[in-house]
Amino acid sequence: MHLNSELIFKKYAVSYFKDNYRVLEIGPDDVPSTLKKLVNNPTIIWDTVNIRSPEAEHQIRNNQLTMVSENEYEYPVLGNAYDIVVSSNVMEHVRMFWKWFDELKRVIKPGGLIITVAPISWPYHEAPVDCWRVYPDGLRALYDSTGLTDVFTTFESIEADAFINTNTPLIPSVTTGNPKKVKIVKAYNAILKYLPFTRIFRVPITVAYDLISIGQKPL
């Protein structure tokens, strides 16, 4: 999970997680996952699920998953079981995400939330496929067809704030998703201020934009 995904989740989503909630995270990145650590609420029951794959088998052996699914559109979960279903950097890898949202709606309680973080500007990254980049209008259309209510949907690059008021250009092909690279870029910019002859090498930086969307199941 890259830095901007973490920042946008922390800014907009963490406040929706309440004491004693039951949460299902799809495709966790670690144990505990980055999202669970950001929420940091020990009263929450936090289950995890992934599609069966070599990565999932590794997670199972290391007790990193609550359950494994054989089908990306069907989870071994009773209906109306969770207060929140959350995922980050998953939707772009789901081939038919409209079918996937039907399943997410099934497993949340009436009034429950589906919280989705997904890249808009991130480069192609197959795992094993990379299918979609979706803007807020697309999620709202999906909610209309799925019978969900749009609670909050936006896209933003929060990590770009680190470079506001920077008057020097940045080295090529550097993503701010890595904090170490951020330091390198800033140091590079500081040097360029005193080396005007390097202007011919100045090019824009790659900055991540992510969608965050919160949909609600009707009561």
Plain-language structure description:
The chain has about 220 residues and is α/β, with parallel strands linked by helices. It has 2 domains: about 5-160 and about 210-215, Vaccinia Virus protein VP39 (Rossmann fold); about 160-200, no CATH class. The chain is built from 6 helices and 7 strands, in the order H-E-H-E-H-E-E-H-E-H-E-H-E. It has helices at about 5-10, 35-40, 55-60, 95-105, 135-145, 180-190, and strands at about 20-25, 45-50, 65-70, 80-90, 110-120, 150-155, 210-215. It has a 7-stranded mixed beta sheet, with helices on both faces. Helix 4 links the parallel strand 4 (about 80-90) and strand 5. The protein is globular and about 65 Å long.
- Indicate the CATH architecture of the largest domain: 3-Layer(aba) Sandwich
Q: Domain count, please report it.
A: 2
Q: Which CATH class of the largest domain is shown?
A: Alpha Beta
Strand content: 15-25%
What profile does the largest beta sheet have? Answer: 7 strands, mixed
Distance between the termini: 32 Å
Counting DSSP E segments of at least 2 residues, the number of strands comes to: 7
The number of helical segments is 6
If you average the pLDDT, what whole number results?
84
**What is the spatial order of strands in the main beta sheet?**
3-2-1-4-5-7-6
**Could you give the order of the helices and strands?**
HEHEHEEHEHEHE
Task: Determine Rg (CA atoms, Å).
Answer: 19 Å
Annotated CATH topology of the largest domain: Rossmann fold
Structural category: alpha/beta
> What is the fourth-level CATH superfamily of the largest domain?
Vaccinia Virus protein VP39
